[in-house]
Amino acid sequence: MVNIIETNNLIKSYKNTKVVNQIDLSVEQGDIYGFLGPNGAGKTTTIRMLLGLIKPTSGDIQIFGKNLQNNKMDILRGIGSLVEYPSYYGNLTGLENLEAIRRLLQVKDKKRNLEILKVVGLTDAKDKLVKNYSLGMKQRLGIGIALLGSPRLLILDEPTNGLDPAGIQEIRELIKTLPGLYGITIMISSHLLNEVDQMANKVGIINQGQLIFQNSIEELRKKSNPRIVMRTNDSLHAESILQQEGWNVTLKENGELEINETEDSKIAYITDKLVRKNMEVYRIQEQKRSLEDIFLEITNKRGVIS
Ligand code: ATP
């Protein structure tokens, strides 16, 4: 597999604070890579480095198998991007905005404008002034502009920021169609896991500058397997009894025991064990965790999740 983006030990410091701290990204050809993290985690800073807008403090960036520093213009020609709020000519129509950028990029085929408008679902609004577009329409136009030069890689920084659920859904549907249409690789950042959940095949989670998870969405999903939660009269004691026997249990902040097992016989054994040690078991419950719970849990913990 060809790595479209690869970074090694990427660091960006501002005044001795590492806002991006030793990040090793790996985005493969054809991936829709969800780059996730809470506000201020370092997503935009990373993306700005990938686009050559700011210089890394140290570390290495390879895009399309080439070093970004030494092949900047060549690499950037292959990337379309939408970073923060893009600027438009509000007094021009959607079509005229595309035409202006098409000339700037020296894209030869004029028909490309209409093709792009169709892909981003703005054909009917092509003659409307952009200042009268909704935020969702503006974002779709921004994605259209990013696609004009037929990039191999599309980098979108929080394209759904500020959109309502319907607008988010439209962007999601649009992005899902792109790899099939153009064989493009996409990196999309977001602070909400459920936003990228239904389109990304791979996820990188950044928190306080560190990449704490990078793997397929299936691997992330496995972490949301159901668990058993137990309430007893002395959970600290119960935890120590069970841990001595090698059970995978953790004491939660609310005093409940979380047991990483769901098999009936094992739960029966554990309950029996505690009762025989004169403990009182009040409640045994199965707890399903959503992907969002997992995301919140791992971004609160800060540890590296493998
Ligand atoms: P958001 O979703 O809020 O944009 P983010 O994950 O994109 O979050 P960044 O914008 O990359 O986060 O910011 C990461 C950290 O770096 C923040 O604490 C921010 O204040 C800090 N930071 C970013 N740019 C600068 C700068 N030019 N000078 C100093 N600190 C900066």
Structural shape: elongated
Roughly how many Å is the radius of gyration?
24 Å
Side-by-side strand order of the widest sheet = 7-8-9-4-10-11
Task: Tell me the helix content.
Answer: 25-40%
Note the main sheet.
6 strands, mixed
Number of strands: 15
Number of helices, where a helix is a run of at least 4 consecutive DSSP H or I residues: 11
- Whole-Å distance between the termini? 21 Å
Outline the structure in words:
This protein is of the alpha/beta class. The protein has 2 domains: 217 residues, Rossmann fold; 62 residues, Alpha-Beta Plaits. 36% of the residues lie in helices and 26% in strands. It contains 11 helices and 15 strands. Strands 7-8-9-4-10-11 form a 6-stranded mixed β-sheet, sandwiched between helices. Strands 1, 2, 3, 5 and 6 form a 5-stranded antiparallel β-sheet that branches. Strand 13 and strand 14 form a beta hairpin. Helix 5 runs parallel beside helix 6. It is elongated, with a radius of gyration of 24 Å. It starts with a strand and ends in a 5-residue tail after the last helix.
